[in-house]
Amino acid sequence: MPRLPILSVLGVALLAPTAIFAAAGDLTEITNFGRNPTNVQMFVYKPTRLASPPPLIVALHWCSGTAQQMFSGSQFANIADQKGYIVIYPDAPEAGQCWDVHTKATLTHDAGGDSLAIAEAVRYAIKEYGVDKKRVFATGLSSGAMMTNVLMGAYPDLFAAGSAYAGVPYGCFEGPDMWQPQCANGQLIKTAQQWGDQARAGYPGYTGTRPKFQTWHGATDSVLYPQNFFEQIKQWTNVLGISSTPTSNLTNTPVANYWCATFGNGQLQANFANGVGHEIWYREGDVLDFFGLSSLTPAPGPGGEGPGPTLPPVAQWGQCGGINWTGSTACVSPFVCTVISEWFSQCK
Ligand SMILES: *[C@@H]1O[C@H](CO)[C@@H](O)[C@H](O)[C@H]1NC(C)=O
Ligand SMILES: *[C@@H]1O[C@H](CO)[C@@H](O)[C@H](O)[C@H]1NC(C)=O
């Protein structure tokens, strides 16, 4: 096991601010979701009211973070209560709680590593929860942002878009160790073609649509140096087949001291935060805008137009999920909605 001196520092820098709005429900662990060679733990947040069909966001924690911290420290779950998408929070199995973004297995489609478990959880959610397979997204912070880059390269068939906060390009950490200092320090420079070739090698022969990509970085980041932001722009403009000259570049956007550059027809959006270090934090609304989920609403509830009343939680032994289930997915405390089969989840 390589030593990871910097990771505890990372964790401290990225501890989530206290959540102001709590999600209405709890995280539920899902097991037996498919191939999981590295024992990634998987947790799901399913709001009571779902859009029909519901989109899915995979939200990836930072080094030393956990699924639970990503759940309570970001706003994706409580916004899901209003919009009706599902969130999956994977939890890294490695000591140090960093994602494996360096092995050949994790970097390659269906070859293993942490990325395979995440891909299998997405497939499971499509089958089990009726997730809209055209609206599956990934986002992450730091190590989670590196994994977001990895997923866009190795599983472009599964994701419509990704959003990376303080990450590195797909493949930048490739090698024997969990930490790749040359990449982290912004000294791994490649041409757009080289980065593009590397990302395409994540899924050889793939010819389908490539995910849209949004990236964010602090200009004074000294953990994953900002050069990694510019290397990501090279990589994804090449993969997406669009010019690396932005079609627009707005200063003080989306907030003072940031600039926001758009490439192609919006397939790539790059946000650079002057005066901000590695602790750049989520702007969930801008992520949801980029994913096209801002105007999403839950399916009409019983008895009328528009969002229905919040459904009451289900009692012990009652149904709380399954293919095309439109009733409540929350259970009366202390019961937990447990998957029995793809047709039937039960409060027990
Ligand atoms: C966008 O504009 C800012 C401010 O003028 C500039 O520093 C930055 O390099 C521009 N970004 C791109 C990708 O051209
Ligand atoms: C679920 O609902 C969709 C949309 O109404 C329908 O096309 C599909 O056949 C249903 N699936 C099952 C398994 O009943």
TrEMBL record:
Pfam families per the UniProt record, alphabetical = CBM_1, Esterase_PHB
This entry's Enzyme Commission designation comes to 3.1.1.-
NCBIfam families recorded: esterase_phb (TIGR01840)
List the protein's name.
Answer: Carboxylic ester hydrolase
Record keywords, A-Z: Carbohydrate metabolism, Hydrolase, Polysaccharide degradation, Secreted, Serine esterase, Signal
Top-level taxonomy: Eukaryota, Fungi, Dikarya, Basidiomycota, Agaricomycotina
| Organism field | Pterulicium gracile
Q: Which domain of life is it from?
A: Eukaryota
Signal peptide interval = 1-22
Q: Name one GO biological process term.
A: xylan catabolic process
